[in-house]
Design a protein that fits this description.
Length: 160
C-alpha cells in the first residue's frame, strides 16, 4: 500500500498534535477494483467518550478524513485538490474500543466535477463494522481553503 502524507497539527492526522489521533493513511485497490483509503489508528484515553470507548465525535472525524482523502488517491505528496466536507451522515453500530489498533476504509462512490460523494467504515479487529458514514464533499484547491503551502503545514509522508 502507498502511504499518504500527514500534517503537523491536524486533529486526525497531525504528527505533532499531542491530543490528536495520529491516524496513518494508505492507498490501495480493494477486492472490487476500486481505489480506497485505508486508515490505521489506536484510540487513546484522551479520545474517550464513555469509559474505554472512543468518543463519537472522534469516530466521525476519522471517517470524515478517511472518505475525504479518497480524492487524493494517486496524487502523492502534492495533491492538487482537497475534499471539503459539505455533508456527513454517520451510523454508529458498535462501541469503538480504545487501546486497540483499528482500521477505517473510505472510497468515492460518485464523482461530479466539483462535488464527490463517498462511503467509509470503521472495522473492529474481528472485521465487524463499528461505524459507517456517507459524505458529500466539495473539491477545492488548497489556496482557496487556507493561506499556506502544504510543506509549511508539515504535509509529507512520515515513516511508520
Amino acid at each position: 500500500m502507498l502511504k499518504q502524507p500527514n500534517s503537523h497539527n491536524c486533529f486526525v492526522c497531525g504528527v505533532k498534535n499531542a491530543a490528536g489521533v495520529h491516524v496513518r493513511f494508505y492507498e490501495r485497490v480493494n477486492a472490487d477494483g476500486v481505489g480506497e483509503v485505508v486508515a490505521r489508528f489506536t484510540g487513546q484515553p484522551h479520545h474517550q467518550g464513555y469509559p474505554n470507548r472512543m468518543h463519537g465525535g472522534v469516530i466521525t472525524g476519522i471517517l470524515d478524513e478517511t472518505i475525504g482523502r479518497a480524492v487524493n488517491i494517486g496524487e502523492g505528496e502534492d495533491p492538487s485538490t482537497w475534499g471539503v466536507t459539505a455533508e456527513l451522515t454517520v451510523r454508529f453500530r458498535k462501541p469503538v474500543p480504545l487501546g486497540v489498533e483499528l482500521e477505517a476504509r473510505g472510497r468515492i462512490t460518485r464523482d461530479i466535477h466539483h462535488l464527490f460523494e463517498g462511503d467509509g467504515e470503521i472495522y473492529l479487529p474481528d472485521g465487524t463494522v463499528a461505524a459507517s458514514a456517507h459524505g458529500k464533499y466539495i473539491r477545492l484547491r488548497l489556496d482557496t481553503i487556507a493561506d499556506a503551502e502544504p510543506q509549511d503545514l508539515g504535509w509529507k509522508v512520515y515513516e511508520d
